[in-house]
Design a protein that fits this description.
Helices cover about 15% and strands about 30% of the residues. It is of the alpha/beta class and about 400 residues long. The strands form 7 sheets. A 6-stranded mixed sheet has the order 8-5-7-6-10-9, with no helix packed on it. A hairpin with a 2-residue loop joins β9 and β10. The longest helix is centred in the C-terminal third of the chain and has 19 residues. About 35% of the residues are buried.
């Protein structure tokens, strides 16, 4: 066995950053940006009015609170001009350019309108520049707004659209196959015999991948039969990553290590000093594919996926490793001698975490009690915070 951190670093070292492709902005949601996006003009591009109301000169309040409506300035029209006549105003809409000659906006809620005149409420305090989003106050033309390596969410897509980025350079999605092994596994819609169970690992892992922006290219189940084993050769040839669950330990029917050896895969490690998930291993395929074999127990499989696979997959798409999120345990825990412990916890107020261990590594129902897990290093555990990984 090797230490958990060493296993992680080995997997990271042998993972290459994927190539890029250009996609339409409509198809870029959740993808990883691989270019810079800069402002093509000032933002806002004009002095933008932020309230429905009336544009006027603040200095005209010295002459009274009754104003003559001289016209309107709706959004989407060229910049209007306020007449020079004292106590003139223009009806204005949110999003319109601030009229030339005006410096004050009175919200519609603070006036009483009578025909083509308004009376401004006595409680309104005129203030020049209020309710105006000044041109260039958010960004100047040429400013870098988005850097490569960010995942494109609603904020980033909105910014890209505002800059005219109709086509966006993003990382190619990794081609990932997820295969669960086991003669005891049947499909979800089948009725199990007493000695059978419905396959759940591949579905759970595929869900986590999708929620991480990586839809798996293939999800399935293989048995211990020789002809089924050879399907792995096909999956390996067609994918960048192959994720296996089960048959990875040292039992008589744990065929995965020997099978991968026979397919010309190079072992990086097999066995990690961690709990759960000690039998996990990683191999390199003949063309540099990454094969991660996780234990069949569902708690071990999901923990290994989140601790090892998902962070490295993100790096392969050009994202930096994020700083760990630290939480404080509500009660002391014991470390495991020589072992890293991924301990399920329930997260409370103020990032205070309470241990929520499962009954055993097969108790996937028990995971519902937890928000994620903290990684407890081997050796003494002091009062310091621990890194927290949420379930996807």
């Amino acid at each position: 066995m090797i230490p958990f951190r060493e296993a992680f670093d080995l997997l990271l070292k042998h993972t290459s950053v994927l190539a890029t492709e250009r996609v339409r902005i409509e198809d870029a949601a959740g993808r990883v940006l691989r270019q810079e996006i800069s402002a093509d003009r000032d933002s806002p591009p004009f002095d933008r009015v932020m309230m429905d109301g009336f544009a006027l000169r603040a200095s005209d309040f010295a002459q009274g609170r009754r104003f003559l409506i001289s016209g309107s300035a709706p959004a989407g029209r060229a910049t209007a001009c306020l007449p020079e006549r004292t106590r003139s105003c223009l009806e204005i809409m949110t999003g319109a350019p601030m009229p030339v000659g005006a410096d004050c906006i009175v919200p519609v809620e603070d006036v009483v309108r009578s025909g083509e005149e308004i009376m401004v409420d006595d409680s309104f305090e005129p203030q020049a520049g209020r309710f105006i989003h000044w041109a260039g106050s958010d960004a100047r033309a040429g400013d870098r707004l988005l850097a490569g390596g960010v995942r494109l969410g609603c904020r980033e897509i909105g910014i890209a659209a505002s800059c005219g980025a109709a086509w966006i350079e993003v990382s190619r999605l990794p081609r990932v196959a997820v295969l669960a092994t086991g003669d005891e596994l049947i499909q979800v819609d089948e009725t199990p015999a007493p000695h059978q169970i419905r396959q759940s690992n591949a579905h759970a892992i595929a869900c986590a991948l999708r929620r991480s922006g990586i839809p798996p290219a293939k999800t399935g189940t293989i048995s211990d039969a020789p002809e089924q084993r050879q399907l792995v050769r096909t999956f390996l040839a067609d994918h960048d990553w192959l994720l296996l669950t089960g048959a990875v330990s040292k039992g008589a029917h744990d065929f995965v290590p020997d099978l991968l050896d026979s397919l010309g895969c190079e072992k990086l490690f097999h066995g990690i000093a961690q709990r759960p998930g000690k039998p996990a291993g990683c191999w390199l395929g003949p063309s540099g594919q990454i094969v991660v074999a996780l234990p069949g127990n569902p708690v071990s499989a999901l923990t290994g996926l989140h601790a090892l696979v998902l962070p490295v997959l993100a790096v392969s798409m050009g994202m930096p490793l994020p700083p760990p999120r630290l939480v404080t345990l509500a009660e002391p825990v014991r470390s495991l001698p020589g072992m890293t412990h991924h301990l399920p916890v329930a997260l409370g107020v103020g990032d205070c975490a309470r241990p929520a261990p499962t009954g055993n590594s097969g108790d996937f129902i028990g995971l519902l009690k937890s928000s994620g897990f903290v990684t407890v290093p081997p050796g003494p555990v002091g009062p310091s915070s621990l890194p927290f990984t949420p379930w996807t």
